[in-house]
């Protein structure tokens, strides 16, 4: 868990220190939300703290009007902007260095859930639906609706989403965590 939190701070500032951790906590609502999500998931080992972490996480979900399940599998270096309106279930898997902005929906269908690769940027209002795979280094454009697998290094846009470029996410994912 602590490695994931260090990676999350690194994604905001390109380096890690305790001072930057405090700065991120005080100034970045997305970082606060992700931190509380990680604490709620990994705090189960200490029962009293777990209740505390889950309570704070549930309050943050109300404040940020988000329905993100803390049980989802999230890799290190998650950078969430704005948080508002974002939702995903407990069976979603997201790789390392994901960047997610507001109003993103990641939803299952028929008991199958999306698997999202590393270094992925999910644009405002996009929807990723069903048991699909989003490759590594992918950009999902604003308001795109993704219902089919997306290959590595693709940029997809539209309803339904189609590959519009193969330049990948290098221009969208800042300070990737590589440890």
UniProtKB/TrEMBL annotation:
<dbReference type="GO" id="GO:0005737">
    <property type="term" value="C:cytoplasm"/>
</dbReference>
<dbReference type="InterPro" id="IPR005881">
    <property type="entry name" value="Ser_O-AcTrfase"/>
</dbReference>
<dbReference type="GO" id="GO:0006535">
    <property type="term" value="P:cysteine biosynthetic process from serine"/>
</dbReference>
<protein>
    <recommendedName>
        <fullName>Serine acetyltransferase</fullName>
        <ecNumber>2.3.1.30</ecNumber>
    </recommendedName>
</protein>
<dbReference type="Pfam" id="PF00132">
    <property type="entry name" value="Hexapep"/>
</dbReference>
<dbReference type="InterPro" id="IPR001451">
    <property type="entry name" value="Hexapep"/>
</dbReference>
<dbReference type="InterPro" id="IPR011004">
    <property type="entry name" value="Trimer_LpxA-like_sf"/>
</dbReference>
<keyword id="KW-0808">Transferase</keyword>
<keyword id="KW-0012">Acyltransferase</keyword>
<comment type="similarity">
    <text>Belongs to the transferase hexapeptide repeat family.</text>
</comment>
<dbReference type="GO" id="GO:0009001">
    <property type="term" value="F:serine O-acetyltransferase activity"/>
</dbReference>
């Amino acid at each position: 868990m602590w490695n994931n939190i260090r990676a999350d701070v690194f994604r905001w500032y390109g380096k890690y220190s305790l001072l930057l951790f405090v700065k991120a906590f005080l100034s970045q609502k997305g970082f606060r939300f992700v931190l509380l999500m990680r604490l709620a998931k990994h705090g189960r080992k200490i029962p009293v703290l777990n209740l505390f972490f889950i309570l704070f996480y549930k309050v943050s979900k109300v404040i940020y009007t988000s329905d993100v399940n803390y049980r989802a599998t999230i890799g290190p270096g998650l950078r969430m902007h704005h948080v508002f309106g974002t939702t995903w279930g407990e069976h979603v898997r997201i790789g390392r260095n994901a960047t997610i902005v507001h109003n993103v929906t990641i939803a299952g269908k028929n008991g199958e859930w999306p698997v999202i690769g590393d270094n992925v940027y999910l644009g405002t209002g996009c929807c990723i639906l069903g048991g699909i795979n989003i490759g590594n280094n992918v950009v999902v454009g604003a308001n795109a609706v993704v219902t089919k697998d997306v290959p590595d290094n693709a940029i997809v846009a539209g309803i339904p989403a189609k590959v519009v470029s193969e330049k990948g996410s290098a221009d969208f994912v800042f300070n990737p965590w590589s440890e």
